[in-house]
């Protein structure tokens, strides 16, 4: 097909700042419905739209849509200053209104794009512009505190903040000409080449080369609680103002996955119109955020051809969704099932009526043993029968020697590892990692949904972290990570009203371990790992009870941490079990 391209159209915002915008539209007068993407990564950069996790722009034009790509304020060829999240609401609404007024546009617009491009959609959707009919955030979040910058348990997502902060600071610096700051370029690029240089130095808040070019990072580190700084940009807190359907796409190993799923469930319950509540759709595959994992193939685990993004046909899903909601074609069935998930273990796609799956049964798996659960060779047991004796497992958490991140929902590859389903052997041999494992399974057990861990803990410190990981132990011994989480003790009751621990006293806390879908096959075992760090996926708790990001090397304290279990202190892993009698379970 032939189409018309307009490059760098200046679109004026309410304060006079002009945002550079490209338009690809089918030949002819139209009018056409439009699909808008707003990006900080360069609308002219083939890499921005060549990412296989995003739909194919040309298929959109071929289907009769005008595709509109804009550089967000302060990036690439747009005017203004880039302050992440600060202007996406107003600029999004102004752009939607401009689009609706163009002669070639029929007044109906959908928004699309991944990650930051997803934040831009959520923030624009809150503004309620009548032209906006649907959004399609891929691997993104409507609550930037919960993901990607902090986490539901209040720990900083250090890798995401510092890696993305470095890349964005470098983009800002280059856009400004980069004069006189060659040393900053050197420091920033060195940090990307060797993540130890990026992550190890303390205090975390002292990142001058980065904050000189992206002062916003300083703000992020100064707001460890979910205060007004975060609530002001959390579209999820204003779900009732969002009146459009959303197509959510996520990856089980994506840094955003918890919030991707929460956006879906919150919009299903609290969306601002019947259409919004009914029109939510969710697709989750075995992918991480990193480029190149869209094939569903990782060094320690391959999900087969069906795990690839191609098998999910993201472009077709977007087209069905936009035809239904932007074109308003009620005759186009936009997926008869609301939810499509890739079930790991059996490595198959499955359609579901909703999320969480309506037939979920939450089952307790109790932590048990005689107090020597340290390492995978210890005596830690996970049992449905309940622990019969009171015991406690003890480990030293030394922030100078944190447990290294091995796979999972980390944003970037860290030394010796990659985001995704990595074998945990290297961390399970550490004395500061407790392991609780079931007997070998005789029958398949499906776990699909939200995983939580309830712990009774004590610490010698006034504040510390507790981490958990759910692991599928294969018959050959490989311990493949499924999902994970962390709880900062001071935030165990509230993300806005911290409460320190009473050293030595037993407290209970609940850790959100995220979501997964996995069939533990016969011959496999279910394992829970508990520790106090997962670095640099999360920042290290310094164990002082003070402002963690401001603590230096000299302030770090070692904590003696304990997990109690038994009839009086039933520490337990709560798994979302799916039992469907007669359902075929095979690979
Ligand atoms: C992204 O756009 O890919 C992204 C944005 C924020 C944090 C991490 C990734």
TrEMBL record:
Keywords: Hydrolase. Pfam families: Peptidase_S15 (PF02129), PepX_C (PF08530). InterPro entries: AB_hydrolase_fold, CocE/Ser_esterase, Galactose-bd-like_sf, Xaa-Pro-like_dom, Xaa-Pro_dipept_C, Xaa-Pro_dipeptidyl-ppase/CocE. One of its GO terms (molecular function) is hydrolase activity. Residues 319-574 form the Xaa-Pro dipeptidyl-peptidase C-terminal domain. The keyword Lipid biosynthesis does not apply. It comes from the Bacteria. SUPFAM superfamilies: alpha/beta-Hydrolases, Galactose-binding domain-like. This is CocE/NonD family hydrolase. The lineage of its organism: Bacteria, Bacillati, Actinomycetota, Actinomycetes, Pseudonocardiales.
């Amino acid at each position: 097909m032939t189409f018309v391209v307009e490059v760098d159209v200046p679109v004026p915002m309410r304060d006079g700042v002009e945002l550079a915008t490209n338009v690809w539209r089918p030949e002819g007068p139209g009018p056409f419905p439009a699909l808008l993407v707003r990006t900080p990564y360069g609308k002219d950069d083939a890499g921005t739209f060549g990412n296989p996790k995003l739909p194919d722009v040309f298929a959109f034009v071929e289907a009769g849509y005008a595709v509109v790509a804009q550089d967000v304020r302060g990036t690439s060829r747009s005017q203004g200053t880039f302050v992440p999240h600060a202007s996406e609401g107003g600029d999004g609404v102004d752009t939607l209104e401009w689009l609706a007024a163009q002669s070639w546009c029929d007044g109906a617009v959908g928004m699309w794009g991944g990650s930051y491009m997803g934040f831009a959609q959520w923030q624009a959707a809150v503004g309620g512009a009548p032209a906006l009919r649907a959004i399609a955030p891929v691997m993104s979040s409507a609550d930037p505190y919960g993901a990607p910058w902090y986490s539901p348990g209040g720990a900083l997502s250090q890798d995401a903040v510092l890696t993305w902060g470095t890349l964005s600071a470098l983009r800002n610096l280059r856009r400004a000409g980069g004069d006189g700051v060659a040393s900053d370029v050197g420091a920033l690029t060195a940090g990307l080449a060797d993540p130890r240089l990026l992550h190890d130095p303390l205090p975390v808040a002292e990142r001058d080369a980065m904050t000189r070019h992206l002062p916003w990072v300083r703000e992020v580190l100064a707001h460890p609680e979910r205060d007004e700084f975060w609530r002001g940009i959390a579209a999820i807190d204003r779900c009732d103002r969002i009146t459009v359907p959303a197509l959510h796409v996520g990856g089980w190993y994506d840094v955003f996955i918890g919030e991707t799923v929460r956006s879906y469930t919150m919009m299903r319950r609290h969306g601002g119109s019947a259409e919004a509540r009914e029109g939510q759709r969710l697709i989750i595959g075995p992918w991480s955020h990193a480029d190149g994992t869209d094939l569903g193939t990782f060094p320690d685990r391959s999900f087969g051809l069906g795990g690839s993004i191609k098998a999910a046909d993201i472009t077709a899903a977007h087209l069905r969704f936009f035809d239904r909601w932007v074109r308003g074609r009620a005759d186009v069935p936009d997926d008869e099932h609301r939810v499509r998930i890739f079930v790991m273990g059996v490595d198959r796609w499955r359609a579901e009526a909703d999320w969480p799956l309506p037939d979920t049964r939450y089952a307790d798996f109790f932590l048990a043993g005689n107090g020597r659960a340290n390492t995978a060779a210890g005596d830690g047991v996970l049992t449905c029968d309940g622990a019969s004796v009171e015991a406690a497992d003890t480990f030293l958490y030394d922030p100078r020697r944190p447990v290294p991140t091995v796979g999972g929902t980390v944003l970037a590859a860290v030394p010796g590892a990659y985001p995704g389903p990595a074998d945990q052997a290297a961390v399970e041999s550490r004395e500061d990692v407790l392991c609780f494992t079931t007997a070998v399974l005789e029958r398949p057990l499906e776990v699909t949904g939200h995983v939580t861990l309830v712990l009774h803990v004590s610490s010698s410190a006034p504040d510390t972290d507790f981490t958990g990981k759910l692991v599928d132990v294969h018959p050959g011994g490989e311990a493949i990570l499924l999902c994970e989480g962390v709880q900062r003790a001071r935030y165990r009751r509230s993300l806005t009203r911290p409460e320190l621990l009473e050293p030595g006293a037993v407290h209970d806390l609940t850790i959100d371990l995220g979501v997964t879908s996995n069939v533990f096959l016969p011959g496999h075992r279910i394992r829970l790992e508990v520790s106090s760090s997962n670095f640099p996926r999360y920042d290290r708790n310094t164990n002082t009870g003070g402002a963690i990001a401001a603590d230096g090397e000299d302030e770090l304290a070692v904590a003696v941490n304990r997990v109690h279990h038994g009839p009086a202190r039933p520490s337990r892993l709560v798994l979302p079990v799916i039992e469907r009698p007669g359902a075929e379970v095979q690979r």
